[in-house]
Each structure stands twice: as structure tokens, then as C-alpha cells.
Specification:
Elements (H helix, E strand, L loop, with lengths): L1 H6 L16 E7 L2 E7 L2 E5 L6 H22 L4 E5 L3 E8 L2 E9 L6 H12 L9 H8 L4 H17 L3 H18 L7 H21 L9 H6 L1 H5 L2 E2 L16 H12 L11 H9 L2 H6 L7 H11 L8 E3 L6 H16 L4 H11 E5 L2 H15 L1 H4 L7 E2 L2 E3 L7 H5 E2 L2 E5 L10 E5 L6 H17 L10 H7 L4 H19 L6 H14 L6 E6 L11 H13 L14 H13 E12 L9 H4 L2 E2 L6 E15 L7 E9 L18 E8 L7 H4 L4 E6 L17 E2 L10 E4 L11 E6 L16 E5 L3 E5 L4 E2 L2 E2 L3 E4 L2 E2 L3 E2 L11 H17 L7 H5 L15 E5 L7 E4 L5 E2 L3 E5 L3 H12 L1 H7 L29 H19 L8 H13 L4 H12 L1
Parallel strand pairs: 3-4, 7-10, 8-9, 8-15, 9-11, 15-16, 18-20, 26-34
Antiparallel strand pairs: 1-2, 2-3, 4-5, 5-6, 12-13, 13-14, 16-19, 17-18, 18-19, 20-21, 22-35, 23-24, 23-29, 24-25, 26-29, 27-28, 30-31, 32-33, 32-35
Length: 993
């Protein structure tokens, strides 16, 4: 074990390390106890075999004693490792509890690097680690032991102190801000607040490391509040925000000290990427980011967009209105500084002017904290520590750049209004600032800072001091302004007395910034970025109503029938141009790929947004179609659009100011990008760029008569309440017609359902139905069906807990009522009962009674996949579309057409986009597939060839235990070489083209 620690590349040698991290064998801990191995702030207990539960529990108890003692002695977090050489477990104190936070098991294929990375994550002994995206993800990401230790400790601290007024206030304001933009999509949970707290405090410490500050020697409160930055004349980099509660609670400072020690392992001198984006994406789950419309842009794409859009960096002011972690800001800052260096511009002037040339806004407090540090990383340590550098204000602001509620929430009769109430009292006790005070952003920030500092320094409950010196120092001469600021100061003092201060300066200054930037004199020359991609169907109801109203006023709304496909990104871009871009200014945005050619984006493509408040016209300059790049860097296909804002004008002035719509001509990018390629220089060699002509969906097409006949199957959800596998029954059996079952679980289940226990019981056999899923269908062949408990009496009656017939079936009644109770307790909305969910859009009853001949095809996939089913008892799930056919010949005619490569090729441009053209749905019926006519020669021959292919596939030997994707590939490879393939494909093309 000692050899592993000293020779494993963990930076543990007696020659070059301080004593605190030298492995010590049999280290005394008091009371005649000795730690087997002690490394820095970690005790390692070694046992021969941890497979014995008794041995493991005794060892855990022993290790817990060591960790508690050392924690008291050192005054900071101390970890424990328990191992037998194969099984490695990391432990930490979480309040009074000793908990396992991470585990690593050696397998036959485990590499030495894997176990050493895990060990180093716990020990935190390495030094000079280069902060590459890979290193950040593996050493600090959600699955790293380092993160698991930090999260466990922070969770315990929060649970212990969450009822303190200062903690509650910060938690309330954090939730209020995110709820205002994300509504029901916002996960208002303590878990997310804790993750955000950890991320932001990590970012604050990294900011200090960028300046080459030895964070291990700095007081934790100084790190979190950014006092050293203020002393260094760097403002807006690290501030006391929603997440500064950690230094206001017992043991919080010790936790920050531990974070600092871990982050100091990295060498932050030279960073070439937005590595904090990697940290954020590796900690916050993809599901949470999707809900919030957060899709972060690859560095190489941001770099290329910046290079092509910011053509005169020294003379263009740039804003990213949804800056995220700062990827575009990073490259815009580098672009400006490179241009300044090339022009021989002095460092002082460069940094003085930089912050007026590149700025960002985001509504997400974590993104803003990360973006501010990214901004510093882009400037670089050598510039920041130069004697030539003077005052810098990092221009990354927390605020709603979209300004959903500008007129009802923040602005009132020429005043910026901030509500300071708690709970349901947000519309009382306001802070009010005249709009004209915002004109000078630096002055306004300094005034608000001083007001907050004076309120905090005043003895609680004491008299309110005079502001005369502040007025003189900041040039506040108007009696009206003086009275207004005095009233605000009085309110801040009251907040201090209530224990609810520490945050208002930060909150006020940041919410004011979007308003300041939207003034005509402050508008920018370039807008660039990646707006939020939030689908209409994922918006809460109140946001949907406002989105619809604002879209209609700009002629972006395309009707209720396509509402679920409409997306916030288009309205966000139109609104950003309206508020922040000067006339003749340019823009470049990453957008969902459907913007280029889907009919529901046609209003956006016109470039004419006639809002009554301030109409906007744009001239689009082109686009990049990125949908065919691999691997995908977003969950949906993407594109980039370019354009400029043109003057609207009135009367004679309006002549010639005609919007230029987004052209069907695009530049198509294809290629498979190496995962090791991270900048544009490395990536461009993997990409082929060529002119292309977009095909607008539905243009000139005649829909098939089969379109209304095909419908989606039933939504059987949550799956564990319905899908079952055989359960255990006793030796006496269950009697005729009854069967023991339990929930069939799968790894794709989501919270809260995945955390709930199995359903187990007995049901009458007649209620156990075969169910076909999307994965059940191969070309021309059906795989074994799943089994599900479904409340279908006879051939066509659906039962629920209130149905009078349910009591006739006592086993089903017991199962169903338990399932209903689970649903009612854990559903996300009270709108639907369990039967309503099952019967959504009549997905179940439309299948009753079952019919003997049905054609099925998958709702999604890279290829259309279809088969004919002849079992009337089978239930079809919503990942399949189905229709009844009159004859086997008609069924095989449709099946052959749907399975042909020609059909997939023709329908792809019409399909909704996921990562690829994967959402097939009913797009196939936008092709002119004619009604089957047995007397028509082409129809009959297609059906005949379908029967031949179906018979061949039925004889094909397949290992059905393999993944359905692989089985589909095997079948398609066989079909591609069959003697009928070429003829069938030609007949389908003849029929459809």
C-alpha cells in the first residue's frame, strides 16, 4: 500500500513534499489507537477482506473514530478511506453522521490510472495539474470522489443551518430569480441550491488562483466576498451573493479552506478554454439543463463565430445577452486583446477599454459567477498582475436580458423598483432608484455598494447615520435624489436589523444592468451568443401565455397546431435585437436547426418583427447548417444565423429599409470531429463546408390518405406501475387464473419514480397484456412483447378505482388502487388521474377492441422501421404509430414502403429534429403514399416483394437478447444484399418522386 501511494504518481515523496502529506504508517491518534496509513487530511484503514459485513462494519466504526478525532484536532474536513486493495470506499463526516460518499471497485479491466485518479481525488495531493476540460471533468465532476466529498459536507452544513434568516433570505432570492424566468421548469430544490453553492464558491476560489494568490493562506471569508479583488481595483469578479451563506455558518470557513486546498492543485496560469463550462456541465445533470434551455456552445464554434462576426474588435462593442459560463466572452476578450497587441496599444489603455467593448448578461446566478471568472481567465494572469493594469470592472451582469416582466416588476413611473419583502410580501418595502441614476453605471454601482456597506457597518438597532459625505463624494446634488437614496438607506438598515442584508447590493446592481444597456446611447455594435432553447411545451402556463402574446405582436406565432414545436430562442433573438443592438449593428446566434427550414419558423425568417412598442427589421446575411456534424454537441440539431439590424424609419425615411429574409441558400457543414480537437485550428480539418439549398418542409407536397388513419399508441407511464416480470409464489401455488408479478425496472427511469419501491402482488391473468414498445419492432419482424398489468375488462372496457366492475376482480383492484395511490402522491401535476394518463389522447381506448391486422412503425429513429402484427390482444405503446389494414396485402404494401431506404431518404428533410432527423412521427404521411389498390401493378408488386422480404427476415437467426439497435442493423444489412432490394427501392421511388 505504501508503495502504491509513493510510486503511483500521487505527488507523495519524502523529498519534495511538506510533512503534512507524507504517508505515515501506524500513525498515533490517541487512546492507544493507530491509523494504518495517514496521508495529509486522510486516514486509510486497510483490511484483508471487506466482503464480510461484520468486518466492514467494525472497520467503519474504527475509521469513524479516527476521522472525528482528526477533524477536531485539525479544525477542517478530514476524510477516511477503507480498503482491502480491491474495494475502496471514501467516507466523510456529514454533521454527526459518518457516511460513505464514494466507492471504487477494481475490476479485471481496471487500469492503474483509474484507481490512482480516484485516490488522488480523495487525497488531493497532486500539484500543477493542467486544467484541461478532461482534467476538470474527471477530477472535479459529479462522479469524482472530490465532488462527492464536498457535496456531502456542504449538504450537512446546509441542513444544519438552513433556518437561519440570512440563509433563508439567500435561498429565497435565488429561487425567486430563477423562477421568474424558468417558471415550472425551475427545480426549486435544496439539492440544486447546494450544487449551485458549491459551483460558485469553487469559481470564487479559482478567480483568486488566476491572480496567483496563495488561497491556502487567505481567510475563507476574504475568498468568498472577494475583498482582495476590491483591494486590487478589480470589481465585479467575486462578490457576496446568494451563495455566500457558507461563511456565515459554523464550520463553513473550514469547508471553504478545504475547497481552496483542492483547487490549488491546478495550474491556472494558462487556460485556453472555457473550462468552467465543463465543470458546470459535469455537475448539473443534463435533465436539469434541458429544462432550463441550457445548451452550452463548444469552444471551437464560439471561436469561429467570434472571428467571423467581430471584424473590428477595437471599434466594436460586443454583448452576449445569454452568456452562460462565458464561452463567447472568452473568445471575444481574446479577440480584442490580440487586436490591441497587434496595434501596439498599451496594456493600460487595452484593459481600460476592454470592459466597455465586451460584456455579458445571464439570468442564471451560477452561470454569471462562472462567466466572471472566465472573463479573468481570458485576460490572463500576466496582464492582471501587471503594474500597468489599473481599475477593472468585470462587465458580466446577473439580470433578465429578455425582460419578461420589465414593465410590471422592475420599472414603475421612471424608477427601478426592487421588492425586499419575504415569502408572500414581495410587493412591500421597496428599494426605488430613479432611472437617470443608472446612466452612469460605475457611479451607480459605487453608490449602491456604499449604501449597503454603511448599513452593514452601523450597529444593529442604532441610529441611521448621515449620507452627506456620500452625496458630496459621488456628486449627488439633487434634493430629490438625496431623499430617495436616504429612504433606500433607511430600508437597508432595517434589513440589517432583521438579519436579512448581505445580498441587496449585489441584487440591485445586477438587475439594473439590462435596463442600462437597453438605453439607446448604450446599445452595442455586435450581439453574439447562444440563446436559451426552451420549447413552448416545456414552459409553465403563465410563461406560455406571455410568450404567445409577445410572439403574436411580432408575427412569430404560427398557430396552436404547431405550438408545441415553437421555441423561445427566436423571440429571445428578436427581443435582444430590439433592446440592445444599435441600427446597422450585426448579430450571430446559435439556433435550433429547424429555424432554417421548418414552417413554424417562417415568421422569424422574414426578418420583420412589427412590435408596437419598437418595431424591428433585420437583414439576414446567411447561415451555417450544422446538423450533419458528428458527434453532436447539442441534444438537438443546430445552426448558426447571421444578420444586421436595419433602420425602420417612417414615411420617406422608410424607403429602402426592407427586411432581407433568411435565405434558403446555406453553408452545410459535414464531418466527424475528433474528440481531441477543441479549438478551430484543430477542428477545421475535420469539417467539409459546401453551399447547399434548403428544402422547405411541406412545400408542394400532397399528403397521403393514410395520414389520418395512423395514430400513436398509449402512454403507459410511469412504467414501473404497469410493466411486470414474474414474481415469486409459494409452493402451494395461487389457484387457477392468477399470476404473481412484480415491477420490471430499467435504468432509464427518472425521479421520483426510480426511487420508489417495486410493485409486487398477484393479478388475474386476463389483465396481463402483451405490450409492444418502439424497441419491439424490427424491419418486417416483431420481437417478444413486454407484459403489463392493464385494467382492460373483456375487449373494450377500461376500469379505474371508481368503476363498479373493479370489485369483481379483487387482485386487480388491490394492484390498481396501490398504483393510483403512488401516482397521486408523486405526480408532478394534479391535472391527470392515472387512468387519464393511460388514456391520454385516447391512446388506449382507440385500440379497443383489438383488430387482427395492424401496421406498426417507430415514432423515432435514424431509419423508418415497420412491421405487420396479427395479434389483436397486443397493446401498442406511444413510441409506435399504428393503423388497421383491411388485408394482409395492404399491410405488406405499407410495410415494404416504410422499410425501404428510399422512403427514409425522402422523409428525412420533413422530420422534426432531435440530434439527427430522428422524430419521424407522422412526417412519412406528408409524402404522397397512395391508397393501396390491388389492381394497380406497382402496388401489387410492392406487396409481393414485401411478403418475400418478410419471410426471409422471419427465417433469419437473431440473438434477441442483444440490443434492438444492433438487431435492426443486422436486419438492414441483410435487406441491403437481398435479391429484391434494388427492385423494391426503385418501385418506391417511382411511386413517390
Amino acid at each position: 500500500m505504501r508503495a502504491l501511494l509513493l510510486d503511483g504518481g500521487l505527488n507523495l515523496s519524502e523529498d519534495d513534499l511538506h510533512e503534512e502529506v507524507i504517508p505515515r504508517l501506524e500513525s498515533p491518534v490517541g487512546d492507544r489507537r493507530r491509523i494504518d496509513i495517514e496521508v495529509g487530511f486522510t486516514a486509510i484503514e486497510v483490511k484483508k477482506d471487506l466482503r464480510s459485513k461484520t468486518v466492514r462494519q467494525e472497520a467503519e466504526s474504527q475509521l469513524a473514530g479516527y476521522v472525528r478525532t482528526r477533524t477536531e484536532q485539525f479544525g477542517q474536513r478530514y476524510a477516511g478511506i477503507l480498503t482491502d486493495g480491491t474495494d475502496w470506499r471514501a467516507y466523510s463526516l456529514a454533521g454527526d453522521d459518518f457516511v460513505q460518499v464514494s466507492r471504487f471497485e477494481l475490476k479485471p479491466r481496471t487500469t492503474p490510472t483509474e484507481i490512482l485518479l480516484w485516490l488522488e481525488g480523495v487525497l488531493a495531493t497532486a500539484q500543477g495539474i493542467k486544467p484541461t476540460p478532461e482534467a476538470i471533468a474527471t477530477r472535479m465532476g459529479a462522479d469524482s470522489p472530490s465532488h462527492e466529498l464536498d457535496r456531502a459536507t456542504l449538504t450537512a452544513l446546509y441542513e444544519q443551518h438552513k433556518d437561519l434568516p440570512t440563509v433563508k433570505l439567500k435561498r429565497e432570492l435565488w429561487a425567486r430569480l430563477l423562477r421568474s424566468a424558468l417558471g415550472a421548469q425551475f427545480d426549486d430544490s435544496d439539492t440544486l441550491f447546494i450544487e449551485h453553492t458549491l459551483l460558485v464558491n469553487n469559481a470564487a476560489i479559482i478567480a483568486h488562483l488566476v491572480l496567483d494568490i496563495d488561497v491556502k493562506e487567505v481567510q475563507p471569508a476574504t475568498l468568498v466576498t472577494g475583498q482582495l479583488f476590491t483591494q486590487a481595483n478589480i470589481y465585479g469578479a467575486v462578490e457576496s451573493d446568494f451563495f455566500g451563506w457558507i461563511i456565515e455558518v459554523t464550520e463553513g470557513e473550514a469547508f471553504v479552506h478545504t475547497l481552496a486546498r483542492r483547487l490549488a492543485r491546478f495550474d491556472w496560469h494558462e487556460v485556453e478554454h472555457d473550462v468552467l463550462k465543463v465543470l458546470y456541465e459535469s455537475v448539473i445533470t443534463q435533465e436539469t439543463r434541458k429544462k432550463q434551455g441550457e445548451y452550452y456552445t463548444p469552444d471551437w464554434l464560439a471561436e469561429k463565430m467570434v472571428a467571423d462576426t467581430i471584424t473590428d474588435p477595437l471599434n466594436q462593442r460586443v454583448l452576449d445577452p445569454s452568456c452562460g459560463s462565458g464561452t463567447f466572452l472568452f473568445h471575444a476578450v481574446r479577440s480584442y486583446l490580440d487586436a490591441a497587441d497587434a496595434a501596439g496599444q498599451g496594456l493600460k489603455k487595452s484593459l481600460d477599454e476592454l470592459t466597455d467593448h465586451v460584456a455579458g448578461i445571464d439570468l442564471h446566478p451560477v452561470a454569471v459567477a462562472l462567466a466572471r471568472v472566465t472573463y479573468l481567465l481570458a485576460i490572463g494572469q500576466s496582464r492582471l498582475t501587471s503594474d500597468e493594469r489599473k481599475l477593472i470592472r468585470v462587465p458580466v451582469y446577473l439580470g433578465d436580458s429578455f425582460q419578461w416582466q420589465q414593465r410590471t416588476d422592475l420599472i414603475d413611473h421612471g424608477h427601478l423598483v426592487i421588492r425586499t419583502g419575504a415569502g408572500g410580501q414581495f410587493y412591500e418595502n421597496e428599494l426605488r432608484f430613479s432611472e437617470h441614476l443608472l446612466a452612469d453605471a460605475v457611479r451607480f454601482d459605487l453608490i449602491v455598494n456604499e449604501l449597503a456597506d454603511k448599513a452593514t457597518d452601523r450597529p444593529a438597532g442604532g441610529r441611521i447615520p448621515s449620507l452627506t459625505s456620500l452625496f458630496n463624494r459621488r456628486g449627488v446634488s439633487s434634493p430629490t435624489d438625496q431623499q430617495e437614496l436616504t429612504d433606500n438607506f433607511r430600508r437597508l438598515c432595517e434589513l440589517v436589523d432583521e438579519g436579512r442584508n448581505h445580498i441587496w447590493s449585489y441584487y440591485v446592481r445586477n438587475l439594473a444592468r439590462p435596463m442600462w444597456l437597453s438605453r439607446a446611447e448604450n446599445r452595442v455594435d455586435v450581439l453574439i451568443g447562444n440563446p436559451p432553447w426552451l420549447s413552448y411545451r416545456h414552459m409553465p402556463r403563465d410563461m406560455q401565455e406571455l410568450f404567445k402574446e409577445m410572439s403574436q405582436s411580432r408575427k412569430l406565432w404560427r398557430g396552436e397546431e404547431v405550438a408545441t414545436h415553437q421555441d423561445l430562442s427566436g423571440l429571445f433573438i428578436a427581443r435582444a435585437i430590439q433592446q440592445y443592438l444599435r441600427e446597422d449593428g450585426t448579430f450571430a446566434f446559435v439556433v435550433p436547426n429547424p429555424v432554417l427550414d421548418r414552417p413554424y419558423w417562417s415568421g422569424f425568417r422574414t426578418g420583420d418583427y412589427p412590435d408596437q412598442e419598437a418595431p424591428v427589421k433585420v437583414s439576414f446575411k446567411g447561415s451555417w447548417d450544422l446538423r450533419r456534424l458528428r458527434p453532436h454537441f447539442f441534444p438537438r440539431g443546430s445552426a448558426v444565423i447571421f444578420g444586421s439590424r436595419i433602420p425602420v424609419g417612417i414615411g420617406e425615411a422608410a424607403k429602402g429599409n426592407t427586411p432581407a429574409p433568411l435565405s434558403q441558400d446555406t453553408e452545410r457543414w459535414t464531418g466527424k470531429i475528433s474528440r481531441t480537437a477543441v479549438n478551430w485550428q484543430q477542428v477545421k480539418g475535420w469539417i467539409k463546408r459546401e453551399p447547399a439549398r434548403l428544402q422547405y418542409s411541406k412545400a408542394g407536397l400532397i399528403s397521403s390518405p393514410y395520414r389520418p388513419r395512423f395514430i400513436a399508441g398509449a402512454t403507459i407511464y410511469p412504467k414501473y406501475l404497469f410493466f411486470v416480470e414474474p414474481g415469486q409464489s409459494n409452493s402451494l401455488g395461487l389457484g387457477g387464473g392468477r399470476v404473481a408479478v412484480r415491477s420490471e425496472r430499467n435504468r432509464l427511469e427518472k425521479a421520483p419514480w426510480k426511487n420508489l419501491p417495486d410493485m409486487e402482488g398477484v393479478v388475474e391473468k386476463e389483465f396481463l397484456r402483451p405490450v409492444l414498445l418502439g424497441e419491439s419492432v424490427l424491419p418486417y419482424r416483431i420481437l417478444s412483447a413486454k407484459r403489463a398489468v392493464l385494467p382492460i375488462e373483456g375487449s373494450d372496457t377500461l376500469l379505474d378505482g371508481e368503476h363498479p366492475h373493479l370489485e369483481r376482480y379483487p387482485d386487480l383492484a388491490k394492484w390498481w388502487r396501490r398504483a393510483e395511490a403512488q401516482w397521486l402522491e408523486n405526480r408532478s401535476s394534479e391535472r391527470l388521474t392515472l387512468l387519464d394518463r393511460l388514456e391520454f389522447h385516447r391512446g388506449m381506448s382507440s385500440q379497443l377492441p383489438g383488430t387482427p391486422l395492424r401496421v406498426l412503425y417507430g415514432a423515432s429513429g435514424m431509419h423508418v422501421t415497420a412491421a405487420l402484427i396479427e395479434d389483436p390482444s397486443a397493446v401498442i405503446e406511444h413510441k409506435l404509430y399504428w393503423a388497421t389494414v383491411a388485408t394482409r396485402e395492404e399491410g405488406m404494401y405499407l410495410t415494404a414502403i416504410l422499410n425501404s431506404p428510399a422512403l427514409t431518404e425522402l422523409v428525412r428533410p420533413l422530420m422534426s429534429y432531435g440530434k439527427d432527423e430522428r422524430d419521424i412521427d407522422k412526417a412519412v404521411w406528408e409524402l404522397p403514399i397512395p391508397q393501396f389498390d390491388p389492381s394497380e401493378g406497382t402496388h401489387a408488386r410492392i406487396a409481393e416483394l414485401g411478403f418475400i422480404e418478410s419471410a426471409n427476415i422471419a427465417e433469419l437467426q437473431l440473438d434477441e437478447t442483444k440490443n434492438f439497435v444492433k438487431l435492426r442493423q443486422v436486419v438492414r444489412q441483410y435487406l441491403a444484399t437481398s435479391s429484391s432490394a434494388e427492385e423494391l427501392d426503385q418501385l418506391v421511388r417511382l411511386l413517390l418522386e
